[in-house]
Amino acid sequence: MIQYPNGTRKNASRPQQANTSRRGMTLESDINQTNESYLIYNKAVIHKKPTPIQVVHVDYPARNKAKIVEAYYRHASTTDYNGIYKGKYIDFEAKETKNRTIFPLALLHQHQIDHLRSVLQHGAIAFLIIRFTSLNETYLVYAQDIFEYISTHKSKSLPLPWIREIGTMVEETYHAPCDYLPIIDQRLKENL
Amino acid sequence: MIQYPNGTRKNASRPQQANTSRRGMTLESDINQTNESYLIYNKAVIHKKPTPIQVVHVDYPARNKAKIVEAYYRHASTTDYNGIYKGKYIDFEAKETKNRTIFPLALLHQHQIDHLRSVLQHGAIAFLIIRFTSLNETYLVYAQDIFEYISTHKSKSLPLPWIREIGTMVEETYHAPCDYLPIIDQRLKENL
Question: Family assignment (chains A, B) (predicted)?
Answer without folding.
Answer: Belongs to the RecU family.
